[in-house]
Design brief:
The protein is an alpha+beta fold and 209 residues long. It is built from 3 helices and 15 strands. Strands 1, 2, 3, 4, 5, 6, 13, 14 and 15 form a 9-stranded antiparallel β-sheet that branches. A 3-stranded antiparallel β-sheet has the order 7-8-9, with no helix packed on it. Strands 10-11-12 form a 3-stranded antiparallel β-sheet. A hairpin with a 6-residue loop joins strand 11 and strand 12. The two termini are 42 Å apart. The N terminus is likely disordered.
């Protein structure tokens, strides 16, 4: 009986150490990936969360990560500031040939999306309109209007009744490779990009953990 108990305790300890090691590797890869994103988007801060357990075991067997979520704050380009850029990736595939060298090479994805919020203050500075953005509305000179918004030739087009259309060129960032749709939310302009491949900031990235 004592031998059985000792054996079970040993098994539990081993499994616990393996789980701790798995969590450590996942945390390390998250940190390295966030640092990599920051290097590709100067001036930004990033955080990454990987949804996968076991993480290392799944990489060894199938070379996949079910879901990855990255948050990028403070990205600025072409006079526009993004308060937040959220990247969600499903079915991330990596090369597991370099795992013994503690390297993960990102290869492809099943699908994903990017949502970015452009601050109202940077839009005001760029356009000089001085409008207040609400939930699907724009307030100009104390008058609340419901505009038509769309995307054309890489720019967001905001059309207000009886006023010239406002064109806002959207910069292509390493974490925001496209703009498919746009919406007006309180205090920001929200742009969305649907992904079929890794964004440039992560494409073929080698992450050494």
């Amino acid at each position: 009986m004592r031998r059985l108990v000792g054996f079970l305790v040993a098994v539990v300890l081993i499994l616990g150490l393996l789980a701790l090691g798995d969590v450590w590797v996942r945390h390390r890869v998250q940190t390295v990936m966030a640092d990599h994103i920051q290097s590709k988007v100067p001036g930004s801060t990033a955080s990454v969360h990987i949804s996968s357990f076991p993480f290392l075991g799944r990489l060894v067997v199938s070379g996949t990560v079910p879901e990855l979520d990255a948050e990028v704050h403070g990205a600025t380009a072409l006079g526009l500031t993004f308060s937040n850029i959220n990247i969600v990736i499903h079915g991330l595939k990596v090369s597991n040939s370099k795992l013994t060298s503690r390297e993960v090479v990102l290869q492809s994805i099943d699908s994903g999306s990017v949502v970015g919020d452009i601050t109202q203050s940077s839009i005001d500075q760029l356009t000089g309109v001085g409008a207040t953005l609400g939930s699907g509305t724009v307030e100009v000179a104390g008058v609340t209007l419901t505009p038509i918004v769309g995307v054309s030739d890489g720019a967001v087009v905001v059309t207000l009744p009886h006023l010239p259309a406002i064109h806002i060129p959207i910069p292509r960032l390493g974490v925001l490779p496209c703009v498919d749709s746009v919406a007006i939310i309180p205090g920001a302009l929200r742009v969305t990009c649907q992904l079929t491949e890794l964004p440039p900031a992560l494409a073929n990235a080698t992450l050494k953990f």
